[in-house]
Amino acid sequence: MRWQVTRSRGTLVALGAVVAVLLAATGVWVSRDGPTTPSVKVEEGFVEVAGGVSLETSLFLPERTPAPAVLLAHGFGGDKHSVDTDARELAEAGFIVQTYSARGFGRSTGRIGLNDPGAEVADARYLVDRLAARPDVVLDGPGDPRIAVSGASYGGSLSLLLAGTDRRIDALVPVITYNDLVQGLLPNAASERPSGGTTPASGAFAANGVFKSSWAGFLYSMGVDSVVPSEGTTEPASLQVGADLAAVCGRFTEAVCRAWTELATTGAMGEDTLRLLRTLSPASVTSSITAPTLLVQGEQDTLFGLDQADANARQITAAGGDVQVVWFAGGHDGAYPDEKLRARIVDWLEFRLMGTGANPFGAFEYDVQGGITPEGAPSTRTVRADSYPGLRGGATERRRLELAGGEQVVITPPGGLPAAISGMPALNGRLAQSPLASLFGMDLPGQQATFTSAPLDGQLLAAGSASIRLRVSAVGPPGEGVLFVKVFDRDPNGTRALPGNAVAPVRLPPLPADGSPVEVTVSLAGIVRPFDSGHELQVSVATTDQTYRTPTVPASYRVSLAGSVEVPVVAAVPIESSAPVAQLLGIAGVLGAALLLALVVGFRRRRVQDFDPALAGTPLVISDLSKSYTSGFKAVDGLSFRVERGQVLGLLGPNGAGKTTTLRMLMGLITPTGGTIRVFGRLVTPGAPVLARIGSFVESAGFLPHLSGLENLRAHWAATGRPAEQAHLEEALEIAGLGDAVHRPARTYSQGMRQRLAIAQAMLGLPDLLVLDEPANGLDPPQIHAMREVLRRYAATGRTVLVSSHLLAEVEQTASHVVVVHHGRVIASGAVDEIAAAGGAASFAVDRPEVAALALGAIPGVSDVVVDGDEVHANLNGVPCGDAVAALVGAGVSVGRAGPRRRLEDAFLQLVGEGS
């Protein structure tokens, strides 16, 4: 069902906060990078659940059954198709995977209740019932399937709520999700306790918090296309909303709509809203979760921070659950788990549900981001601790640092403007390495008090939520009593960086009118940050922040310190430790050093050989490329081909052939198991500089719907950090042919226009090699024709295009050359005409088509005889064309023309063994 907007943005802003609690992206945790495989079967359908609601579902079946099951929930704004790739990869690993579109999403009916226990959670329980009734699902007892549940953000909340209400869940993997919606939306970092908690990232979770208005508005704009139902849409009477809210509620339930209207318009919540959000929060059921739990949380996440996972870990452990915690260098503001982490999550599910292998995770792991590599990517190492401190006794080690800075006066300006900027929701991680980063981090004079440590005499690795005790008094009327506290990393040059763009909002207790101070402990937002030797920690206490609902009543405060800052430190060692080398040096001394030197020299020689001058003019050479997965599946097996300048090369193959995996390796998104990829002679590795010469559209393109097409392209290019004059924006737009539509908001675009905008985005900088994966998906014939012209115009500029597609007729009309891949290997390559002529089909222009068809069908070996007007087509299967003509003449048929039927489809089907 398509949703459209029929009211102005101003009248719809009431639902902004709804989306603020949810994952706007539609992905989920485990996008293992293998392709689909023919061994995985899919059953599509609809399931009727309580209240007359119909859920669209997909069931992914592995090659061998019976097997354990995984219930896979999608993110907010997505549907069951959002997790297709994830489900197929789990099925390839041997699981039966149930996906579905939750109420109000995709083609499912019903209204969105934000994982209401009586609706969405009950729906999930019913799907578990259905799995238990299947003979191909492994059972632990009557009606009790062996099953895990997982999802990210909205889906992660569902996994926790289901595990807390259904004892049949055997394992769960909630990713970047929340514990308490109240604190997720209105956090308050103020606490009466004298210092931080016992666990590394325990938050204050105090009442009467500060509203995350920027997240609400940002994510609302991303979900605006799903707000108001199209005309003619009907719902059961029990789901209809009152007339006063019907215009803005879209598919949300009345209870949710009223709650979020209150939040978005007042910035506060009444008792009814408070009760509702607590009912919808996993915190309401975590005391009942005892199944093994892998909590995966992002370190770059200003929506649901590390404190949310910390609370889940504490509560599930207290209930008797076996909890493992992973913090990774991503989140709502950054990236999803990388290939290595995703593969380990699948291994964890195999360990828990199948009893195979060893547990791939320790009790606690976290990522540490260091400097920037020569290729411009942040270097990251994963470290493992013996335990998650504070879960089962003991407490987190905290290092105390004294800060300098006496009492300071700060003001809240009238109207709360201008406001400090601490980042941009959902883009913080991407902007961190961009020249634009400085534009999204700014405190304002007169609005901040700063307290600074002495330069560190060694590196300090902060892992969790630091705490600091402040003394605050009002100067005149106390205003709303809101402050924003953050800790900066200040280098010797005075440049500040805000780790994770993390801010701790504080709602102060009532301040005495006589100016007497109150003391409050602030639990700063959780971070992982190596503060290097010579750097300083600087704590900023500000009166405004653009990310939150900033007070508008003018006020003035005196702020001073009532204690030192306490920084959590969790001792850990790298998972891939260099200890064996160190031991070798200790034992063998000079011999070990010589070995290390040889390794370094060998590495440098390999680096020199990363460039092959003989291929400097060749856009792409793939040699003996392979990719295997832990399940044993080999997605790519010795693939070799090359693409020359000026070619439009079509990469063809059935599902599971290895096309998308090959393209992802080409883009440096995943690492090959073997073989090489060279672009203009340079070896491709993740983050390799030569990737700047490639423009790609491999994943689904995402655009900010409230920005115009032109503004989206400019923002994308700015995030690359390259000079604006190198974008060649006008040339890319001219080739894409969007016309005046580039000035319209992206949310108004048709699917075809969005695809063309995505191609224009890939063309920015006029890359020498343009790589496109299924660019015509979802387009109608006129749009496909336009897309074909776009690619032809681009190739006409003297550059090279590589297109992966299943639309054979379009490839035949667009590409000059093709490579046909099957089971991860090249089975044919060459010019389109050459490949098409090898299809074995022939066409005959005749005067009596029906008689001719009978005559051809009587020839031994001839098949697929088709009458097409005055022509008859047939697959000769090796029968000489002259013999066929003789048979036709002998049957009294006049033959006007005879020759090969040059159709790429015929050749393709014959090559992959799927023709009749």
Largest sheet: 11 strands, mixed
The named CATH superfamily of the domain at 613-830: P-loop containing nucleotide triphosphate hydrolases
In CATH, the topology of the domain at 613-830 is named Rossmann fold
Number of strands: 44
What do the pLDDT scores average to? Answer: 81
Identify the strand order in the major beta sheet: 2-3-5-4-8-9-12-13-14-15-30
> How large is the share of residues in beta strands?
25-35%
Helix count equals: 25
CATH class of the domain at 613-830: Alpha Beta
Whole-angstrom Rg: 30 Å
Helix content range of the residues, please? 25-40%
Structural class: alpha+beta
Q: Quote the distance from N terminus to C terminus.
A: 37 Å
The name of the CATH architecture of the domain at 613-830 is 3-Layer(aba) Sandwich
- Spatial shape: globular
Provide the low-confidence segments as ranges.
Answer: 1-36, 222-243, 372-377, 577-608
Oligomeric organization of the protein chains: single chain
Family: Belongs to the ABC transporter superfamily.
Protein name: Alpha/beta fold hydrolase
Keywords: ATP-binding, Hydrolase, Membrane, Nucleotide-binding, Transmembrane, Transmembrane helix, Transport
GO molecular function: ATP binding; ATP hydrolysis activity; dipeptidyl-peptidase activity
How would you characterize the overall build of this protein?
The model is unreliable at 1-36, 222-243, 372-377 and 577-608 (pLDDT under 50). By secondary structure, this protein is an alpha+beta fold. The longest helix is centred in the middle third of the chain and has 19 residues, at 590-608. Among the domains are: 399-569, Jelly Rolls (Sandwich), CATH 2.60.120; 579-608; 613-830, P-loop containing nucleotide triphosphate hydrolases (Rossmann fold); 841-900, Alpha-Beta Plaits (2-Layer Sandwich). The strands form ten sheets. It has an eleven-stranded mixed sheet, sandwiched between helices.
